[in-house]
Amino acid sequence: SQTIHQWPATLVQPVGSPLSLECTVEGTSNPNLYWYRQAAGRGLQLLFYSVGIGQISSEVPQNLSASRPQDRQFILSSKKLLLSDSGFYLCAWSVGQKGNSPLHFGNGTRLTVT
Amino acid sequence: QKEVEQDPGPLSVPEGAIVSLNCTYSNSAFQYFMWYRQYSRKGPELLMYTYSSGNKEDGRFTAQVDKSSKYISLFIRDSQPSDSATYLCAMRPNFGNEKLTFGTGTRLTIIP
To answer: Which residues of A touch B98 (CB under 8 A)?
Structure first.
């Protein structure tokens, strides 16, 4: 069966510091991978998605970037964190190229920028 | 107007009651509909997944889609305290790799 791992679970970082959040998926090949941010009362915001190695689509211009160095690895990064980057970051995966594939989420990373 | 509207609650019901959670949407291209359950400090967990209109039942959960009214529902029978969570609806069209559009979630508490 497929599993998704996200780490760390919680992170406290000072303003201006770099960020690296990692996500890996097991049990499937060539998944679509996603980074979401969830803010209280505002729902899930899609940040990046990837349909293959090195293929990244950005949904929202911001202080963050994403990379996919391997088929089942997705990394969210920042060179300098802002206070507004605080939030709950979720990685997700799906398979296929049509709408008939639901997303499956990891357990998220709660980031607090101080 | 948001593409997907969901009452944020909070919604509190006694144990054993039937719970009805709802979302309305404006995009007639949506064909796939999902319900996720999210416990505090955890990622969303897929509960139900339906295509187009109709009902789908899984244990105590029933998902209902009415495309003519652009309205979807999730019913929980014999509600349990362990059902206390935030419930998110999500939907997408039937083409390409179009992103999911989520509701903001309804916070549900089942009172023992």
So the answer is: 99
